[in-house]
Write a structure and sequence with these properties.
Helix content is about 65%, strand content about 20%. By secondary structure, it is α+β, with helices and mostly antiparallel strands.
Length: about 270
């Protein structure tokens, strides 16, 4: 199932690399506005962070206006001296498609207010389409890099768990060996004590009482050793299962990391 999910996402990601922004419309406060729109295969929060990072590196500070993230005095068309206020509306495509985000860019000439679709400047929308296209690869790269960082944290956590389980396994195995050694010595001591009891004169009641008391203690110790060995063997078996689970999880997450790194590499070309 995980492989199928990764494959599906890779196909979607590859398609997104070739996807272009397009002219669309956005309803805001009961008015319709012309916007440039593009769809990207990431969650809304990640895309928002990517856009803020991109614009920040270009020297623009973000502000908020209603449902928009606003960047002022942006030259949407590099060949023109006209600057615009760029209103970004970023939203999850639908409740059932949480990993798909729509980026809407509503351009407004500097100093002007939002203009409904019929009064808008179509040339600004065309410039916005080109601007979104120029941003696309950076947005995908940033977001993928953040996923790689998050995936690395997951891998580090799994590896740390595996190391801990491996160390615990060694400790448990050592305790089992020690208690098995103690049990073996206990049986030798019991054989010796049996001979002591046999060689103690029947009339030596104190001697016999002491000998039997020591034997009882040895037998109690035997029971204790056997119980501890059983418990530690059960712990070792559980530890082995946990390590197998973590190794399987590590394999899956390693595949995810490889896929993410490949996507990030693809963005360089």
């Amino acid at each position: 199932m995980r492989i199928l999910i990764l494959l599906s996402f890779s196909i979607l990601f590859t398609a997104t690399l070739r996807a272009q922004s397009y002219k669309s419309s956005l309803t805001f406060q009961k008015n319709l506005y012309s916007v440039a729109t593009i769809q990207v295969p990431f969650e809304e929060d990640a895309v928002t962070a990517a856009i803020k990072d991109y614009m920040s590196r270009k020297g623009y500070k973000d502000a908020h206006y209603k449902d928009f993230i606003l960047f002022r005095s942006v030259p949407l068309d590099s060949s023109s001296s006209v600057v615009s206020d760029a209103y970004f509306n970023i939203s999850q495509k639908s409740h059932s498609e949480k990993d798909l985000t729509l980026i809407n860019l509503l351009p407004v000439k500097k100093g002007e207010t939002l203009l409904p679709v019929n009064a808008g400047d179509s040339s600004l929308v065309n410039s916005s389409i080109a601007y979104l296209n120029s941003m696309r690869r950076d947005i995908l790269s940033y977001t993928t890099q953040q996923q790689i960082l998050a995936e690395q944290k997951t891998l580090d956590k799994i590896n740390a768990k595996l190391i801990s389980l491996k160390n615990d396994s060694g400790d448990i195995a050592k305790k089992i060996r020690n208690y098995e050694s103690d049990l073996q010595q206990n049986k030798i001591d019991q054989d010796k004590q049996t001979k002591v009891i046999s060689n103690t004169a029947t009339g030596d009641q104190d001697g016999l009482a002491k000998a039997h008391k020591k034997m009882d203690k040895l037998m109690d110790s035997q029971t204790d050793y056997e119980k501890k060995i059983r418990n530690y063997k059960a712990d070792l078996e559980e530890n082995t299962k946990d390590r197998e689970t973590q190794k399987a999880l590590l394999d899956k997450e390693t595949q995810s990391m490889a896929a993410l790194k490949q996507r990030h590499q693809d963005l360089k070309y």
